[in-house]
Here is the input.
Amino acid sequence: SALFIRSYERGERVHLAMLSRGFDGNVPSLENHTPTQRNWLLAMALPGLALLTFVITSVLR
Here is the structure.
């Protein structure tokens, strides 16, 4: 019975933690999301900056 009580209490703690983080029982899906031009620009900004940094440091050597 001690194992059952511990399991039940842990389940309650997990449930309360999920509720405090905004879980409402639905898993969000990106199925209907189409990326915009802004999304693509932001996604390419970091690799672009990394490439620019690499080129600049290669030239300055």
